[in-house]
Hints:
The structure holds two protein chains of two kinds. Chain A is mainly α. In chain A, 71% of the residues lie in helices and 0% in strands. Chain A has one domain. Chain B is mainly alpha-helical. Chain B has a domain of 154 residues. In chain B, strands 1-2 form a two-stranded antiparallel sheet. In chain B, strands 3-4 form a two-stranded antiparallel sheet. In chain B, strands 5-6 form a two-stranded antiparallel sheet. In chain B, helix 9 crosses helix 11. The C terminus of chain B is likely disordered. Classes of the chains: A mainly alpha, B mainly alpha. Chains A and B meet through helix 1 of A and helix 19 and helix 21 of B.
Amino acid sequence: MQTVLYVVVSLIICIAYFQFLDWFLMDMQGLDYFYLFR
Amino acid sequence: MGRLLSCLTRKHKRFLAVAALFAMGGMLILPIFLSLPALAGGGAPAAGGPPPDVVAAQEAAKGEEEGEKIEMGRDVYYKTEGPAIGMPAPKTEDNELHYPRYNFESRVLIWVANQQHLYYGSFVLAVPIFCMCIEFAGMMTKDKAMAKKYDQLAYDFIKISLTAYSLTAILGGILIFTFLTLYPSFFQYLSSIFRPVMHIYALLFVAESGTLYIYYYGWDKMKEGLLKWLHLSMSVILNVIGTVLMFLANSWIGFMMSPAGVDEQGRYLGNIWHVIHTALWNPLNVHRILGNMAFGGGVVAAYAAYRFLSAKTDEERAHYDWMGYIAMSLGVAFLIPLPFAGYWLMREVYAYRQQMGITLMGGLLAWLFIIQATMIGILFLTTNYYLWQALGRMTGGERFQRYIKYLVFILVVGLLVFITPHTIVMTPAELKAMGGQQHPVIGNYGVMSAKNGGINAIIMTTILSYIWYQRGNRIPTVKWAKFGNIFMGCFFTVAQLNNIWLACYGYYIPANVRIGLSVPQVAGTLSCLFFMSPLNLAMLKGGKVLGPIQWGRIPPRSQYALIMLATAFTWMMGLMGYIRSSVRLFWHVNEIMRDNSPWAYTHTIGFAANVISFNVLFFWISILFVFWLGTLGTKKVPVPAVEPVPGAPAPQPAVSR
Lengths: 38, 657
């Protein structure tokens, strides 16, 4: 159970970090990360 | 001299060392001080005043009013106006006046002279930087025996570079004579443009020589306390001088590729900063300094491998195994960001002239880029192979062996995507067999979006290999070790998936948005390096050690991998230098000065590859001679038999007594 909890928490942190990084660095260049989804 | 130094008191030594340090700092600043009158007359913007080209334009306008005519020119890159005070670029013809020659292709002669000078120049730039890092590591290490080993290693490094330094100067002389003999008009034009900074280059050379000799010969006189710090400070000054020298040399090739500071006739417009600071100068500076460091690390690692393979005792083997590992680690530390700097350079080339970028990557020289991609793949595969072999010198390293095949899979897939050509030259039969200019399936991988994903996957895997190596003989015992391990696994997995997602996403959005995706891809890879390495070290702090690292207990094939790494570096530097140079096509200075020699055409790929390979062979034969000279000195050093591994000989006094 503890292992599952650790995996879930880690995945949430990592996915949030990388998605924020993608959006932030595109935004810094004046580009739209969500171009395809608008 | 030695007797004189040995009877000095400690106080005198300190005074002398401080004086020497100030003299070196002074020598570094002297050229800038000397050039102040030149700079004030139109070199760089004066503090608080208008830029010099504006001042010059105003003065020229004033001059016109007074009746004397000064022609104005418009900067081809910066688009500013300035007085055309230089001579226009010479219009050359194919004759003995502009292109005197021997019964041999002048271009190949200058190519070889240039390449050899560059190989040695980059070697002697990189090695003192390594020395500085290793000497600093030795000073920071609390373990005295280890500190002594680091110090001895730094001393060994600088000894190798001293012979190479004189060879660099000789090759520089040969290069200048070759220019003057074979391309006098071009050399005269280029040196007239860079006249305001030519003497700075020469003076920096004097400063570098002086600093290097004091640094080397003062090693044993300055090995404790404040004196040691002063000695380290000298290496900082030495490396600043070396780096500034390289930046100046880069400004010449930057000017040849993307000229600025001159009008369309090539007349100098009075602002030397514009001439130096061209569109490609900074990308070249960053890419070259990283490349030089990776190359220097590779060459020193190859030297250590050569000594390892020829070693007679276990102690020698242990020492050179350790030396090879340190050199390889330093080289790879600079290899990891190198593709990103290369990507930035190419991006700036495209921004400067789209046609130039297309010639490089989608036209005449594209096949050479495929060779380059293959070489980059070989570099990373070899690095990983060495790290996996090195796990064998640790008790506990065998735990990772069964997972290596998965890393090999990722590396190979990344490499195959990375080396897929976009379009290739084919016969009609081949074209028909493939069903078009591009293969219906793997043709999709021949675009930058996929290749960025490929190289980032390779680099992430290399970082993971290194983290495994750090863990080779240790088990983390911190309370949060379980969460740390799971978090690290998730981080690498999500980083790889994010990288693949960005590579795929690039196919569905327009080019101007897609090009921005390369930044988060790089940032993801660097996140793995900068977050996971410290996390790993934090977890291993106070960890359980399964056994000592047994230096020297490594299969000989790992040493051949180091030699291959160095050879691939050398080959790639030659290849990329040729690509960068030949992208100017029939121009000496792009769009300013035309090459009207009989050798203005672009060589066939086969011929170019042969000359590049000859250069590599020539460099390695000559550097083996330098290595051999290095062994002559060390044979006189008594090796203590009971030194703990890695058995380093004690530093020898460098002055005669």
